[in-house]
Amino acid sequence: MSFASIEFIIFFVLVLGVVSVLQRFKSSTYKEVFLLLASYFFYGYWDWRFCFLLLFVTACSYVTALFTNKKFVYALGITVPLAVLGFFKYFNFFLSSISGELGTLSIILPVGISFYTFQALSYVIDVKRGKIEAEKSFIKLALYISFFPQLVAGPIVKAAEFLPQLKEDRRITLKNIENGIQLMVFGLVKKIVIADHLSVFVDDVFRVPSAYSWISIVLAVFSYSIQIYFDFSGYSDIAIGCAKCFGYDFCPNFNMPYISENVTVFWRRWHISLSTWLREYLYIPLGGNRKGKIRQHINLFITMLLGGLWHGANWTFVFWGALHGLALCVDKLIPKRKEKPTIIRILNMTGTFLFVSFLWIFFRADSFLNAWQIIKGMFTLQQGIVQPFSWTFVAFAVVLIATLVAVFRAKKQGAETINGFYPIVRLNKISTLTIFFVVCGLIIALAFTGEHPFVYFQF
User: Cα dist. 265→258, 332, 355 in Å?
Assistant: First the structure.
């Protein structure tokens, strides 16, 4: 059940209505049990069989967290989720890498497995570290791991951020619904009005790059940069907004990453929940920057290499992660100036965007051969179909305008976080209410009606 579907809208409204009734009871158990059942229904809508896998990972985390003082049990709490993730996500990958073909056994990838296994891992690790206490209520832990807004594509929510909210009196209120619905609407604009339209052009070019001119290929590469940003940040907006409607808060997952002045800043702004997870549970345990410069660079490279592998079971993802790891190592060697002229900052932002966009080629390409055809077509001034896709220019205009508005708004408010595309307004005025319904009308009128799942569903 995709967020961008009629089925989800019906599901969301029904769940919201039932929870609003159940929250009237003094005990929160009824609400939590219903949300848990609704989350499993949401997940089982793709394939009900994988609900048992989700339940198994949850049960393992629940039991092992109660006995993290025993090394063997703690080791099980780490290895079991990793084994589940490794088997279902990477079995086909390693089998084909060794034998060159899949053979007779091909494993189906459960949707969202990368996200809920990481949440299960972080819970057990945080209990071991003493950051949180082991959760005694299986219902609360199961709801944390399976809560439907973030279940299939994040953000990756840490237990220390969500479990305390389940112990509070979080309620559905008109204010929460007002803010949450706005986030969901803006997320839908990103996804079905912009990202899905761009995907048509990007898919065509990447499918047969030899048929297109270098101008079209370059345009497709930049289009994919915008597509994946709108697609994934749009999903995050919907997830954050959906949780907000129920009274729960998720941290922002994107912070205007394409205005980053270097790759290090980019990874602080892009997929923030994953970057934070990798830093806390992989980079720092490896030693971080505490064991000298050489070890720091090795740790950075390993973290990004595994981060690339997390994104997908393909050598192109590993290569993409490795290149980002090398870029982070190089960036650490460059002296940083606190005060830089505006023109230098703009050049840095432009250079970072071009670099990141170039590496997206390996992320999007089906194979190294496909990536090479794209790169070759770009730099050999290849002749072919010239297609000035209009939605690309619309998307760039939206990004530019939203970025400028977000930057000026942040400066005016004295805020460090720039969070673009979050113009939450009060809907008790005719003017703002009109704008909101105009945006809703644009979604209906301009929505792409083809079947394009969210990009991160495959991870």
Answer: 10, 11, 13
How confident is the model over 335-373, as pLDDT tens digits?
877 778 889 888 999 999 999 999 999 999 999 999 999
> Could you read off the pLDDT of 120-148 as tens digits, one per residue?
999 999 999 989 999 999 999 999 999 99
Q: How many residues does the chain have?
A: 459
Residues 6+ positions from 32 with CB-CB distance below 8 Å: 139, 140, 143, 166
Q: Does the annotation mark 311 as catalytic?
A: yes
At residue 104, the 3 state secondary structure works out as coil
In the block, tokens 């970072």 appear at: 352
Does residue 77 sit in the same domain as residue 194? no
Closest CA to 265 of 205, 334, 199: 334
Q: What φ, ψ does residue 389 adopt, rounded to 5°?
A: -65, 120
Residue 48, token pair as written in the block: 């009900």
Give residue 131's domain range: 6-172
Active-site hit among 197, 297, 311, 324 = 311
* Residue 154 located in a structural domain: yes
Token digits of residue 169: 């009196």
